[in-house]
Amino acid sequence: MLYPVKNLAGKQVEQIELDDAIFAAPVNKSLMHQALVRQLANARLGSHSTKTRGEVRGGGRKPWRQKGTGRARQGSTRSPNWVGGGTVFGPRPRKYVKQMPRKMSHAALRSALSVKAAAEQLVVIDALAMDAPRTKDLIGALGALDLSGKSVLMVSAEKNDAFQRSARNIGKVKTLTSGYLNVRDLLGYDVVVLSRDAVEHVHGWLGVDKAVAGPEAADAGEAEE
User: Fold this and answer.
1) Is residue 138 a contact partner of residue 193, using CB atoms and an 8 Å limit?
2) Are 31 and 103 in contact (CB under 8 A)?
3) What CA–CA distances, in Å, run from 166 to 136, 169, 201?
4) What SS3 class is residue 2?
5) Is there a contact between 221 and 214 (Cβ–Cβ < 8 Å)?
6) What is the predicted pLDDT for the residue at 60?
7) Arithmetic mean of pLDDT, 30-57
8) Rounded distance, CA 180 to CA 158, Å?
């Protein structure tokens, strides 16, 4: 599909062909949910830890004799039913890492991009670069693009230090390189702004080739040749 390309002044400068297999793909909500859960799980440190009765300090002797006191028998002041005692079945360090096949993660990204394109929450810019860092200029560019007050994810193919430093002081704006596109950021921001080179990188990265499309697509391609 043809999509307008704007500059930072908010004017349309040209049109670009967006791959329907990426930006108009069938939306798989369950796959996006699975990719989001995986991303959130992999971000967890898993460093939580509690001490068992063998790790807390104290409790070296029996608090009172076994019989004759009228009280319940106790072997240590660090058993779980005592204040300051150990924890039973508490959290221990562990890994929350989840795995997901590459084809599934790519399909989830295509679904997320298609959702943004269908909702008209996708903007293509000719270039996301600045000669010198200046937050005021970037705020003006967001106003020209009618994005003031919205949370914006700005994606470029390569890092531009001046542009990133300009966006750093704006609370609702995040910059990202296209190689780090993820479902959480795509769905978590009101608008996704892609630079032209980012679109080209996404086409090469998430494009559906014959091997991914399946034998039917491969046979169709050979028939056309």
Assistant:
1) no
2) no
3) 8, 7, 23
4) strand
5) no
6) 86
7) 95
8) 11
Identity (one letter) of the amino acid at 28? N
Token pair in block for residue 119: 């909702």
Q: Which CATH number fits domain 2-29+100-224: 3.40.50.620, 3.40.50.11810, 1.10.10.10, 3.40.1370.10?
A: 3.40.1370.10
What is the radius of gyration, based on Cα positions, of the chain? 28
pLDDT band at 93 (very low <50, low <70, confident <90, very high): very high
CB atoms within 10 A of CB 119: 10
CA distance 67 to 169: 70
Give the CA distances from residue 151 to residues 37, 42, 188, 190, in Å, rounded to whole numbers and listed in that order: 22, 24, 9, 5
pLDDT band (50, 70, 90) for residue 215: very low
